[in-house]
UniProtKB/TrEMBL annotation:
Acyltransferase keyword on record: yes
Pfam families named among the record's database cross-references: Thiolase_C, Thiolase_N
NCBIfam families in UniProt: AcCoA-C-Actrans, PRK06205.1
UniProt-recorded name of the protein: Acetyl-CoA C-acetyltransferase
Length: 407
C-alpha cells in the first residue's frame, strides 16, 4: 500500500533493547560490536524472520573506531547471520539511533528495500584513547593521548568558527542561564525521572522490550544481565542536593545523563510485505525532521527540530499522545519545555518521559534512539494513544524529531 504522496508505509516491528549498563558496569566486558551482535541475534530470533530476507542493516554508533568498522555489518557477521546481507554505520551523535531508524524507513518507503534492520549499539566503557601525533613519528617530546569520550565533546564543532566549548556540560549551563533554570528545578526534574523509572520497573513495564545479555565470566557460567543499572530508587531532593555542581553551576552527576553501554534494534518493513513474512507491526513510521542550532546551546535543538517537523507533517501538540524528549541534562530538558511554550503546570508534563529517560535510564549514545522507541511504542499501546513524538538534542548543535503512529 502506498500513501497519498506515493511512498510505501514503513512498519516498525518488534523494537527491542538490552538493559542499560553503567559506565564500567555489568556490560563493560563486552565491546560495542559484541553488544550489537547480541541484539541482532535476538531480533532475528524474536521475530522469526528468515534473516536472508533482510535487505540491509543500518546501525548507529556515537564512538566508532577501527575495532569494529561499519558496525552494522560487523555485528551482523559476529551474530553468525547471512554473508549476503550488507550493513553500515552512521553517526549523528546523540541522534544517531533515531537517525538509523529514519534512514531504514526512508529506504523502505522509496522501495529500495523491503526489510531493513535498524538500531545501534554503544560501549562507552570501552571507548579508547588515541593519538593524532604519531603517524609521522615522534622525534622528541611527549606523546598526547586523547580520551575519545571527552575529546569528541570538545571537538563537536570547529574551534576555528566557534572557539573552544569545553563540553556538553557548558552548553547545558548556558541554557540554564538563558532560561533561568535553577539548581532546585533541575534536581526536582531529575528526581521525577528516577521516580518514574523506578515505578516502571516495579510495574514490569520494560519486560516485553528487554533482551537479556549473557556476560561471560572468568570462571563459571555467564551472568545474565537484564536490569537497567543507572536509575536511583532512593533519589530525593536531599540526596541530589548534596552533589556538587560539575562546573560550578547547576549541572551535577545527579541531574545529568549517564555514560552507558547498551544495544537496541528493530525491523523496518514495507506494509505490503508484513503478511507474507508473518510479521505484526508495532507502530508506523510517520515523519521526521532535523534542525541545526548554536553549538554552545546544543540542548535547545529539539525546539527547532519539532517546529520544523510540525510544519512538514501538519500535526500539532494537540495530536501528540506521548512525548519522549531525551534527557541529556535536566536544565536542557527544562529549557526545551520553555522553548516549546510549556508552562510549569502544563498538563502535557503527564505525557512526557513517563517511564524515565536519559537521567535515570541512561544515554548509550548509538542505542538511545532505539531504547526510546522500544518503550514509546509499547506505551502508546498501553494507553491507546495514536501519535508519539521522539526527539533529542545533539552535540555540535542539532536536534532531531520523529513521529510514530500506533499500529
Amino acid at each position: 500500500m502506498t500513501s497519498p504522496n506515493g511512498l510505501r508505509r514503513a512498519a516498525i516491528v518488534s523494537p527491542i533493547r538490552t538493559a542499560v549498563g553503567k559506565f564500567g558496569g555489568a556490560l563493560s566486558s563486552l565491546t560495542a560490536g559484541q553488544l550489537g551482535a547480541v541484539i541482532l541475534r535476538a531480533l532475528i530470533d524474536r521475530t522469526g524472520i528468515d534473516p536472508s530476507r533482510v535487505d540491509d542493516v543500518v546501525f548507529a554508533q556515537g564512538y566508532g573506531n577501527g575495532e569494529a568498522p561499519s558496525i552494522g555489518h560487523w555485528s551482523w557477521l559476529l551474530a553468525d547471520l547471512p554473508l549476503e546481507v550488507p550493513g553500515y554505520q552512521l553517526d549523528r551523535r546523540c541522534g544517531s539511533g533515531l537517525q538509523a531508524i529514519v534512514n531504514a524507513a526512508m529506504m523502505v518507503q522509496t522501495g529500495v528495500s523491503d526489510v531493513v534492520v535498524a538500531g545501534g549499539c554503544e560501549s562507552m566503557s570501552n571507548v579508547e584513547h588515541y593519538t593524532t601525533d604519531i603517524r609521522k613519528g615522534v622525534r622528541a617530546g611527549n606523546l598526547v593521548l586523547h580520551d575519545r569520550l571527552s575529546r569528541g565533546r570538545v571537538m563537536s564543532q570547529p574551534v576555528e568558527r566557534f572557539g573552544v566549548i569545553t563540553g556538553m556540560i557548558e552548553t547545558a549551563e548556558n541554557l540554564a542561564k538563558d532560561y533561568g533554570i535553577t539548581r532546585e528545578a533541575a534536581d526536582a526534574y531529575a528526581v521525577r525521572s528516577h521516580q518514574r523509572a523506578t515505578a516502571a520497573w516495579n510495574q514490569h513495564l520494560f519486560d516485553d522490550e528487554l533482551v537479556p545479555v549473557p556476560v561471560p565470566q572468568k570462571k563459571g557460567d555467564p551472568i545474565v544481565f537484564a536490569h537497567d543499572e543507572g536509575y536511583r530508587p532512593d533519589a530525593t531532593m536531599e540526596s541530589l542536593g548534596k552533589l556538587r555542581p560539575l562546573e560550578g553551576g547547576v549541572v551535577t552527576a545527579g541531574n545529568a545523563s549517564q555514560q552507558n553501554d547498551a544495544g537496541a534494534a528493530c525491523l523496518v518493513v514495507a506494509e505490503d510485505k508484513l503478511a507474507e513474512l508473518g510479521l505484526e507491526p508495532t507502530a508506523w513510521f510517520h515523519s521526521w525532521a532535523a534542525a541545526g542550532c548554536d553549538p554552545s546551546r546544543m540542548g535547545i535543538g529539539p525546539v527547532p527540530a519539532t517546529e520544523r517537523l510540525f510544519a512538514r507533517n501538519g500535526l500539532s501538540w494537540d495530536d501528540i499522545d506521548l512525548v519522549e524528549l531525551n534527557e541529556a541534562f535536566a536544565p536542557q530538558v527544562l529549557a526545551v519545555l520553555k522553548g516549546w511554550g510549556w508552562s510549569d503546570d502544563d498538563s502535557r508534563h503527564e505525557i512526557l518521559n513517563v517511564n524515565g529517560s536519559g537521567i535515570s535510564l541512561g544515554h548509550p549514545i548509538g542505542a538511545t534512539g532505539g531504547r526510546i522507541l522500544a518503550n514509546l511504542t509499547r506505551e502508546l499501546h498501553r494507553r491507546g494513544g495514536r501519535y508519539g513524538l521522539e526527539t533529542m538534542c545533539i552535540g555540535g548543535g542539532q536536534g532531531i524529531a520523529a513521529v510514530f503512529e500506533r499500529a
